[in-house]
Amino acid sequence: MNVQYIQSTQNKKFKEWRKLLKRRGREKAGFYLIEGPHLVEEALKDPDVVQELLLNGDQDVVFELYDDIAVYQLETDLFKELSTTENPQGMIAVCKMKSIEAPKEVKRVLLLDAVQDPGNLGTLIRTADAAGLDAVYLGDGCVDQYNEKTLRSAQGSHFHLPVIRLNLFEAIVQLKAQAIPIYGTSLTGTELSSDLRQSRFGLLVGNEANGVHPDLLDQTDFSIKIPIYGQAESLNVAVAAGILMYYLRGL
């Protein structure tokens, strides 16, 4: 393995990597960073994703690398500048953003309207993966799916199913053309019942503070809500979506 050593903040590569800490830099370059052995290992399952591997000090690689991945060893202080965790895990991968189109045929899809918290988005992606959904569609106003907190919360699930940014109005039209019913969440919706369950569905959940936009909600086939038995005003969007994804598919 040919390892290159970087010791200066003036290094051209280091400057490029540091720009990836910001959304604008990621979108301009078409690359993003992931941190930690688990996420890197998940990324390496797709040979086209990981472009470069960055190691902290004497960190060893604990799994097989592909020959075409460049490996860099950074001084600890430099590595910490790129790390976004309180306790750096010693390994960062530079990953390529892949161009992903919406699947032509799906059975179960999660649609997200203006979800702004990166931790919530990552948890939603991870839960959709666990629940066996086919894709996650991100509408206008959603936080960047390559945000470091989103990636950590997703725990590699964004490598397992398509996460696509698109117009939700158009997505709903396409899903309805496949005879897939659309369920939207609303505080004034119908409480869950067994006759709502479908083998195919699109589940639309919305912004943490305002919920689903009324214009989008008007396009849904069913407006539903989870009953609140205690005194809480509402459920966290990721918790609510998790309950509904499993409920609608028959659990």
UniProtKB/TrEMBL annotation:
GO cellular component entries: cytoplasm
Presence of keyword Transmembrane helix: no
A Pfam family the protein falls into: SpoU_methylase
Transferase among keywords: yes
Residue stretches making up the RNA 2-O ribose methyltransferase substrate binding domain: 33-101
GO term, biological process aspect, one: RNA processing
TM region positions: none
PANTHER family with a match to the protein in the record: RRNA METHYLTRANSFERASE 3 (PTHR43191), RRNA METHYLTRANSFERASE 3, MITOCHONDRIAL (PTHR43191:SF2)
Record protein name field: Putative tRNA/rRNA methyltransferase YsgA
Origin organism lineage: Bacteria, Bacillati, Bacillota, Bacilli, Bacillales
Gene: ysgA
